[in-house]
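Hi all, posting the design record for the shared folder.

TITLE: backbone redesign
STEP: 1 of 1
STRUCTURE INPUT:
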């Protein structure tokens, strides 16, 4: 592989415009799918903590979504909405749901009961406790699920190539088919660097959120 690095660099430089386009598509697939998963999974997680029956259904759907391979989901939605960016986005969105959903439920349920009781003693309603106590304290755990989904989807987004969804998979998979290792490396290494960068940035944010959550808990119990 190391012997192919100079050739991969030359390939990337010679096709820089296409690379930037594919990288932009890749980032858009990951970013939009994770944002949509947050919009759906966090409210569903909140609902699950308030209704045990709903919790069973919601976790069941989330587990099924995670179990089905992304490529299979893409194949299922392909007859309905065709090929391209949108069906790829649906597949990635579905795959991103479970980590955010489970972490939302875990984060809310793990809030210290003493902190909740202290908030009730201050006269706060259940909705106020959710908004002002539980969610702020659960944010680091929820964010850990978002971090997991985002990093996983960086790799999963390569599969968008199979239905014309774009992304760096265009270079990697077509390069494999052509036995063109410089092209494969030129598509694979940026994806790996993107995943590492996202994980590092998210880890720093997660650590900061953990500190803020501690301040919130101390303010209530202190």
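Okay, here is what came back for every position:
SEQUENCE:
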């Amino acid at each position: 592989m190391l012997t192919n690095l100079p050739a991969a660099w030359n390939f990337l430089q010679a096709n820089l415009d296409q690379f930037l386009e594919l990288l932009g598509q890749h980032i858009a697939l990951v970013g939009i799918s994770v944002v949509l998963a947050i919009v759906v999974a966090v409210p569903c997680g909140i609902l699950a903590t308030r209704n045990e029956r709903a919790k069973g259904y919601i976790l069941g759907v989330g587990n099924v979504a995670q179990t089905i391979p992304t490529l299979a989901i893409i194949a299922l939605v392909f007859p309905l909405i065709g090929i391209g960016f949108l069906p790829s986005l649906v597949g990635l969105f579905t795959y991103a749901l479970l980590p955010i959903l489970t972490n939302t439920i875990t984060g809310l349920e793990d809030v210290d009961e003493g902190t909740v009781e202290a908030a009730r003693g201050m006269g706060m309603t259940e909705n106020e406790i959710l908004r002002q106590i539980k969610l702020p304290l659960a944010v680091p755990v929820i964010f850990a699920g978002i971090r997991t989904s985002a990093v996983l989807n960086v790799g999963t987004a390569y599969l968008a190539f199979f239905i014309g969804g774009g992304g760096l998979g265009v270079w990697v998979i077509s390069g494999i088919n052509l036995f063109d290792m410089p092209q494969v490396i030129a598509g694979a290494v940026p994806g790996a660097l993107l995943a590492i960068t996202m994980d590092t940035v998210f880890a720093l944010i997660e650590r900061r959120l953990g500190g803020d959550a501690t301040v919130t808990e101390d303010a209530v119990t202190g």
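COMMENT: The mean pLDDT is 86.
Let me know if anyone wants the other runs.
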